[in-house]
Amino acid sequence: MKHPYLPGTDKDLEIMLDRIGVSSVDALFKAVPANVKLQEDLKLDPAMTEIDVRRKVGAMANKNKSIDDLTCFLGAGSYDHYIPSTVKHIISRSEFYTAYTPYQPEIAQGTLQGVWEYQSMMCMLTGMDVSNVSMYDGPTAAAEAAMLATGSQRRNKILVSEGVNPETRQVLESYLRSRDVEIAYVPLTEDGQTDTAKLADLLDKEIAGLVVGYPNFYGIVEDFSEIVEKVHANKSLFIMQIDPLAMGLLKTPGEIGADIVVGEGQSLGQNLNYGGPVLGFMNITEKLVRKAPGRIIGRSIDVDGNPAYVLTLQAREQHIRREKATSNICSDQTLNSIAAAVYLASMGPEGMKEAAIQSAQKAHYLAKKLEATGKFKMKFNAPYFKEFVMETDLDAGKMNEELLKQGMLGPLSLDSCGLPGAVLFCVTENRSKEEMDKLVAALEVI
Predict the structure, then answer these.
(1) Which CATH number, 3.30.40.10, 3.40.640.10, 3.40.50.300, 3.20.10.10, labels domain 85-344?
(2) What SS3 string covers the chain?
(3) Rounded to two decimals, what is the model's pTM?
(4) What tens digit of pLDDT does each residue of 278-322 get?
């Protein structure tokens, strides 16, 4: 039996069937009903040489446009930030490779130390007590935080600000629906900030926690001082979904009074990669450490008195009694976490601050230039970081088509968010004055 893609011979097949005690391939699959079996060969192209395959796949791949080809003014959760060359070089070292959780510390000290360093720096960045590793991405990290809150507070209702990323809200709904946890949304004011008065009306003894964005989805930096007091007075947890790069400029969640901090770690040295892989992060106060999902790496001393790194806390049912498990985190984002650690170490406090300041200054520069065209107007009168919403009479779809022709990835239309005629621009430290001026010039003639 010859196959156009598999190298096995008829003799190979005969040996394998004999070893498992089956007379033929048909006999092997006799349990499959005949009416669901494919009765003909798959309609595949003829086999090709490796040279031809590489040429064909390469031609297909070249149809894609990445931020290496385009100037990016699109954000909304994934961002074109500077990545030091050290990141890729260091995480390519073999001692950091891991297909799964590093269960055997004696052969995974490189990985474990890398993660321990990551956790330490994330605590410094957010001002929180404990950091875990590793969540799938930012939205699922928020869902895990909501589940942690309901379990910890023994309540079955979560409040979510409408300023939280819409994709995160969708994931929250998907996760919490099966756990019979109710979600209620706190509306925004005309300035795009969580409505404190409406929040007060929604807070009751069934509320386990409130989820907010910092900055929120519309780029706005909210003042949560009054909100934190109200949430804690209700014995609820305050959960912040943050942009980690913004922490180089803004007050940390720890200073604000957060109980749980989650977010998307893509900004920390991760390529966009058309959406992944990425990592989610979760930082918590010490009193919640036993409820945290994922894993926590600890540093100890071995029998010879040398530093040793181990999996200190593991919350999966695979590791502890099933009824006490608090996590369903299965696959491991460790390599992405180590990349984030290398990024944080390479940038240092001053580098993080500089990247945040440049992002904010450039965003404000572009906003003023766009307003000066007369075609754009700021939607919200509120402080913002690197993203901002503008109203325009231009058709967002046609505008972005024209920008794409000129090598630019334009803003996100907010029609689906209930803001018709509004678009969300993003500017990072990677953007130059020349690139921003080119964008403005292009928009002036569209």
Answers:
(1) 3.40.640.10
(2) CCCCCCCCCHHHHHHHHHHHCCCCHHHHCCCCCHHHCCCCCCCCCCCCCHHHHHHHHHHHHCCCCCCCCCEECCCCCCCCCCCCHHHHHHHCCHHHCCCCCCCCHHHCHHHHHHHHHHHHHHHHHHCCCEECECECCHHHHHHHHHHHHHHHHCCCEEEEECCCCHHHHHHHHHHHHCCCCEEEEECECCCCCECHHHHHHHCCCCEEEEEEEECCCCCECCCCHHHHHHHHHCCCEEEEEECHHHHHCCCCHHHHCCCEEEEEHHHCCCCCHHHCCCCEEEEECHHHHHHCCCEEEEEEECCCCCEEEEEEEECECCCCCHHHCCECCCCCCHHHHHHHHHHHHHHHHHHHHHHHHHHHHHHHHHHHHHHHCCCEEECCCCCECCEEEEEECCCHHHHHHHHHHCCEECCEECHHHCCCCEEEEECCCCCCHHHHHHHHHHHHHC
(3) 0.88
(4) 999 999 999 999 888 888 899 999 999 999 998 888 766 556 666
Domain ranges within the chain, ordered by starting residue: 10-61, 71-80+348-445, 85-344
Residue 324 pLDDT greater than 90, yes or no:
no
- Tens digit of each residue's pLDDT (9 = 90 or more) over 63-103: 988 888 999 999 999 999 999 999 999 988 877 765 466 77
**Superfamily of 71-80+348-445 according to CATH:** Aspartate Aminotransferase, domain 1 (3.90.1150.10)
Domains 71-80+348-445 and 85-344 share a fold: no
Buried b (16+ CB within 10 A) or exposed e, 389-411: bbbbeeebeebbebbeeeebbbb
Helix axes 334-372, 433-445, angle to 10 degrees: 50
Q: Which residue has the tokens 């002036």?
A: 444
Residues 6+ apart with CB under 8 A from 330: 316
